[in-house]
Amino acid sequence: METLRISGDEKRALIALMGDGSQRSLQLGTLGPEGTSSEYVARLMTRLLGDRGRFGIVLEETFEHCMDALTEGRLDLALVPHAYAGINAFYMNPLLEPSIVFRGSTPEYGLAARSDFAFREELLFTDTVVTHPAPIPLLEYYFDRPVKLVTTTSTSQAAGQVADGLYNIAITNEQAARQHNLKFVYRFSPIPMTWTVFSKRIEKEGPR
């Protein structure tokens, strides 16, 4: 099963961003809090390139906050999945540019609940499921009836709201479910997807 696949050209492009010194530390931003699929893929990416430089991973509340930090110089790079509906705005931003694009699978996704919650499939159609907007189509592929939903900023946040008792069921990933002591009551699968690492655009001087 695919976990992470970065081509040689993309690796070289990313290494070039580190500069000549292999010990240069780069701040890589992505969606938090801890337990998101974005954090999971960011850590896989930095481990793959760990021998060529050190990375600090910064978790922001939204991808838009990542881009603000990137344009303001508080981040060097920002990782965004192509499943994020608002990614087009980042490509259109004249202050940003895509540095590399690669494939990477998320942790396994599923429906998660607290261990003391007696889940039955029919509850999906009477209870409320909390989720990030991106994985909502999973429900259409696995169930044949509409599900009542409320959205939040990340899969990890969804798991946390179930753990706190605000909701009983979340669409989340295995990492966030484990972090918040939830159990999967229905499993989907890992999601293979593509990702972009953005950097701040550097204007190059033309010939005088």
Summarize the structure.
This protein is an alpha/beta fold and 208 residues long. Helix content is 28%, strand content 34%.
Folded structure, characterized:
Strands 1, 2, 3, 4, 5, 6, 7, 8 and 9 form a nine-stranded mixed sheet that branches. The protein is built from seven helices and nine strands, in the order E-H-E-H-E-H-E-H-E-E-H-E-H-E-H-E. The N and C termini lie far apart (52 Å). 28% of the residues lie in helices and 34% in strands. Strand 2, helix 2 and strand 3 form a beta-alpha-beta unit. With 208 residues, the chain is of the alpha/beta class. The mean pLDDT is 91.
Helices and strands, with pairings:
Elements: E1 4-5, H1 8-17, E2 25-31, H2 37-48, E3 54-60, H3 63-71, E4 77-81, H4 87-92, E5 96-114, E6 129-131, H5 137-142, E7 149-151, H6 155-163, E8 169-173, H7 174-179, E9 182-200
Salient structural properties:
nine-stranded mixed β-sheet, about 210 residues, alpha/beta
Helix content: 25-40%
**Poorly predicted spans:** none
Number of strands: 9
Structural class assignment: alpha/beta
